[in-house]
Amino acid sequence: MKGELLAAAASAEIFAWGRDAVLKLFRPEYAYAAHVEAERTRAVHAAGLPAPEVRDEVTLEGRPGIVLERIEGPTLLSELARGGAAVREVGVRLAEIHRALHAAAPASLPRALDTLRKSLAAADPGLREEALPIVDALPDGAATNHGDLHPGNVILSARGPVLVDWVNAHLAHPALDVARSLVLLRYQSSRRTRSAERLALRQALADTYLEAMLDAGHVSQAELGPSLAWASHALLHSGAVQDADVPALRALARPPQPG
Ligand SMILES: Nc1ncnc2c1ncn2[C@@H]1O[C@H](COP(=O)(O)OP(=O)(O)OP(=O)(O)O)[C@@H](O)[C@H]1O
Ligand SMILES: [Mg+2]
Question: Which domains does the chain have, with CATH numbers?
Answer without folding.
Answer: 2-69 (3.30.200.20), 76-252 (3.90.1200)
